[in-house]
Amino acid sequence: MSPFPPTRPSSHSISRRRALAALATGAAALSTSACTVIDDGAVAPDQMDLELHKEPAPGRQNTIELFNIWGGRTGNAWVQLAEVYEASQSHTAVRVTYAPMSGNTQIRLQTAIAAGTPPDLAFCTPDEYPQLAGFGVIATLDRYMSEAGLAGDQYPAAVWDQMTKTDAIYAHPVLVDVNFPLFWNKKVFADAGLDPDVPPATIDDLDRMSDAILTKGGSQITRIGTVPWDYYGFSNSMYTCGFAFGGTFMSEDNEVATPDHPHLVEALTWMCDYAERVGGASRLAITSPSQTLPTIASGNLGLAPMTTADAQNVFLNGDPETVDLGAALFPYAEGLGEPGSATWLGGYDLFIPEESTQHDAAWDFLQFATVSDEGTMTNYESSTLVPGYSPSPALEALAEDPRLSIYHEALITCRNIRPTIPVSGLYTTSLDTNVSAAIYGQLSPEAALTKVADQVNAAMDAYRQENA
Amino acid sequence: MSTGTVPHPGGSAPVPTTSSPRRPRRPAGNRLTRWIPRTRSQRHTFWWGLFFTSPALIGLVFFTGGPVIASAVTSFTNANLLGSGTRRWVGLENYATLLRDEQWWSSLFNTFFLTIVSVPLGIAVALGLALLLNWRVRGIGFYRVIFYIPSIVPVVASAVVWAYVLNPQYGVLNNLLGVVGIEGPGWLSDPAWSKPALILFGLWGTGNLMVILLAGLQGVPQDLLEQASLDGAGALQRFRNVTVPFISPHLLFAVITGLIAGFQYFTPAFVLTGGNGDPAGSTLVSGVYLYQSAFFNYQLGYASAIGWVLFVIIALVSIVAYRLMGRRVYYGGAA
Question: B298, A131: Cβ pair inside 8 Å?
């Protein structure tokens, strides 16, 4: 070794440069990908020009504000609806304010309510309104409903059941997600040697078909029948499978949470057994083919429940070489559930915040959006938003749609709703955490669901103490 | 130092004494009032200074100080997020509930795990990159920019890219592992690998720390390195005995700020795993649990208690780290 430090770069500087260049190339490639994400976002190019915000029409007697929580076509649907509404009358203008969700929460709405400056109309999920009503931040709609002649016989049974779970009607369904018909990919069925025109009717059928479809690359699952713990999150998966096994999540009087119902334990046991049979949930290596298409469009998933918007997306944008969808009601567990028993109601309601100032004008728009022929058809045509009001022509159109008529059948036969209680948010997060723990083998199904029952019932008791 | 005489007050023989440099005059007033300007010039400067800093000060008082005090008070109440209903004083009930809350302990464990692993690893990677970028090679400025860029890409955009990098089927990482015969895990779908995945993702943003350490490395005296080299010290010895002492203030800074950021960890876990702590609660960190309590469950009082407990933990850990490391830091001769 030379006793003197080098006075100029020695020959091994070349390898230094190579090392630096290799690392820099990797970093640059990933950074460029990130820049592409910023540039393109998760919005398809044909949706880049869609408006999510709208200024009110000038010169009207009233101006109301609606918080719009969606992006893309669904977000634009509310702008279109507001324009149609403004054209249909001359007294009320609508400002549509884009107030996107952060995760599953509407932070802008929450802070606006807390600050005493809420919008005139806002969205909530149907299981969310009892909590908001309990806090006293929602206006009741009973007077408006009776003046408009709206009553139970005009709504599908599950929709009306959900609207009337509390002492008064606080929110009105504006888009109904019928969760979930099961879609199957005929291409995958054919490739696995199954009859592509015969969907599973029971959970046993589903197991048998899934076994035939399952493909592994090493220990990773590269093609799977269905993923029972990934039906739009762990809690929604539990609701779907739980109802398929004939379970109930609340007592008859809606006072006690019953996630530890024996049928629900059986349902979760089936989900866990399924995960174990395919080699473990962590071995799943199947993802969506793009930012905007659901996983079934990848051709590596045989069967999946889907919302109306996702199903329509696959029908319109899926590669016909990879995916050819069939639709049926979700299977049931023989001896426990019955045909169609898995279906439950999701979607979104519109409500009028108590502290908003223009209740009458807000109701006028709400009524237009949820029960009028023009309003419900506009929503259906712009973004396949299904109304929860039986006389709407949009439901007729849905029944006649060869691809989506399964949703109409499911809506008419649906009998289940999610727990519609003042601590529904906690019920959902507790199910998410504990069902997930059971699926990954950290808790037994029974222990997981008992934990949920303890947490939710303790929260219900605490709520009753605070809000007698 | 010179000796001299001071006349005795009584006019008798002078008392020998030792003259010393004049001690600095102590500012008038006690510690609490020392900052108050006394001369006209000081007052002039003080008020103008206050005037120009007033926007920041007003912001600090109302938008930081106010919420801090409000959250401290709220943590002793049953307040809900929407500000409705009767707000009731519940004393230490929220804190007592926190002690019994399994999910809180689980989230705290996840937070500690991520912090303890990611802070030293992040510093090691940032230091490694800084050492690489301290080489004298052609185009070094370009390389420095390239390595710094990831730290200014928004976390959400980076998370979307990393969701692809970590994809078990098509991801770059598992494909690279496959080349050397290793079957990569389901990074974000396996509870055993989800935290390492987040740690790996965290390394992507070490560019800021890299720049700080690079500045430190460039302050290491070359003559000392050359002398050590002449004395026969190898590269490792030079790094350990010369470089590390000179960059130790930067390393202390990195550790303290890393610990604080680690306990406040939120965005990557929220974006990459949907804010639910999936899979199986393995990525439920304290920040996400606080968010869930406030915005999913509307329990503002409880969420405030979580925030204050986190604050105390961060303060304690920072003090311990400073006590342990602070005395080993070398400030180049300055005290």
Answer: yes
Q: What are phi and psi of B173, to 5 degrees?
A: -65, -50
Contacts of A193 (CB under 8 A, 6+ apart): A212
pLDDT tens digits along A6-23: 444 444 455 667 777 777
Q: With an 8 Å Cβ cutoff, are A23 and B147 in contact?
A: yes
Residues A217, A303, single domain; the answer is: yes
Nearest residue to B162 (alpha-carbon basis) of B196, B134, B112? B196
pTM here is 0.85
Q: Which residue type does B250 have?
A: H
Domains of chain B in sequence order? 35-64 (no CATH), 94-326 (1.10.3720.10)
**For residue A466, which phi and psi values (nearest 5 degrees)?**
-75, -35
- B100 in contact with A at a CB cutoff of 8 Å? no
Spatial distance between the Cα atoms of B184 and B182, rounded to a whole number of angstroms: 6
Cβ burial B308-328 (10 Å sphere, 16+ → b, else e): bbbeebbeebbeebeeeeeee
Same domain, A117 and A137: yes
- Give me the residue from A136, A234, A436 closest to B85, CB to CB: A136
CB contact under 8 A, A135 and B292: no
Of A379, A391, A392, the closest CA to residue A347 belongs to A379
Give this complex's ipTM. Answer: 0.84
A104 at interface of B, judged by CB pairs closer than 8 A = yes
pLDDT value for A3: 45
CA–CA gap between residue A467 and residue B8 (Å, rounded): 85
Residue B190 to residue A282, Cβ atoms within 8 A: yes
A398 shares a domain with A362: yes
What tokens does A407 get? 């949703």
Per the DSSP assignment, residues forming a β-bridge with A21 are: none
- Domain of A367, in residue numbers: 62-178+346-417
CB B281 to CB A4 under 8 A? no
First and final C-alpha spacing in chain A:
85
* Cβ–Cβ < 8 Å for B163, B272: yes
Which residues of chain B make contact with A137, given a CB cutoff of 8 A? 82, 84
Nearest Cα of chain A lies from the Cα of B279 at a distance, in angstroms, of: 6
Measured in residues, chain A has a length of 468
Low-confidence residues in chain B, pLDDT < 70: 1-30, 333-335
Contacts of B191 in chain A (CB under 8 A): 282, 440, 442
Which DSSP helix (H) or strand (E) runs through B325?
helix B300-326
Q: Helix, strand, or coil here: B81?
A: coil
Distance CA B141, CA A448 (A): 55
Residue A25 domain-assigned (yes or no) = no
Same domain, A358 and A339: no
The answer to whether residue A462 neighbours chain B at the CB level (below 8 Å) is: no
Burial class of residue B34 (count of CB atoms within 10 Å of its CB; 0-12, 13-18, 19+):
exposed
Residue B264: both structure tokens together: 């406040």
Contact residues on chain B for A4, CB-CB shorter than 8 A: 230
Is residue A444 domain-shared with residue A335, that is, in the same domain? yes
pLDDT tens readout for residues B142-166:
889 989 988 888 888 888 888 888 8
